[in-house]
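Retro notes
What went well: the complex prediction finally ran end to end.
Inputs used:
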Amino acid sequence: MVEQIAHLDAVFHALADPTRRAMLGQLAKRELTVGELATPFSMSLAGASKHVRVLENAGLVTRTIRGRTHLCRLEAARLAEANAWLRRYQHFWTAKLDTLESLLRAEDLAKVKKLKE
Amino acid sequence: MVEQIAHLDAVFHALADPTRRAMLGQLAKRELTVGELATPFSMSLAGASKHVRVLENAGLVTRTIRGRTHLCRLEAARLAEANAWLRRYQHFWTAKLDTLESLLRAEDLAKVKKLKE
DNA sequence: CCTATACTTAACTACATGGTTGAGCAAATC
DNA sequence: GATTTGCTCAACCATGTAGTTAAGTATAGG
């Protein structure tokens, strides 16, 4: 629980770079090697490799070494943590979603509860 | 649209620091002056002031100067942008929320659409 | 076996960040 | 009017970040 605080530091820092966000966008479609992740960017392979490392250290990506290629896969658990943090502020930016929530509560409280846990 | 990319850089970077996240947590309860924001932390006022500045530059906080005090208010629009970005990955970390969505769609698509816009 | 491929690591540069102290300034207060 | 208060700004330091190139390692393929 307390560890999540440190997680959030690393996760938000990893997300603060457009190259890394783009990499995650690619990984959302399919698993990719470090080389494949690097190609879209005008950057050395070593540079891209460092970005992958940051994503990995943040727990956003896991790596499977197969032969000489490193296959990267999106790991969404930490994104969920970040989202959970943001959710605490959700009512600040939209009364509409509050309405949606209350609508849900009104319709079937038990069903929603089951979905949440 | 494209500007939001730069927004995200600043917003995620601002959120990557635990002091700043804590400040936002305080501002979620009530508006606070820079001094009030600074007191919980073992840090000089100038240091805290720099954190406030980062939050302000990211658009997460607005400042109202009244006399010699600077009142800070949480500005959630940019948090919403960050949340919107994370939402694109939501189905990766929970099939349960997907179910919630489809449940909504099944129940009243038109109503939900209205709520979203 | 030799070479090309897919990476990582190390060393380096340039700049940003998080913190400090000290000075400055404008508004409250005495 | 003098002083305290609330804050910013500037200068500085240590560390971190994003990028580079060059070298090293290990696998795949001729």
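What we learned: Residues 111-117 of chain A have pLDDT under 50 and may be disordered.
What to try next: split runs per interface for comparison.
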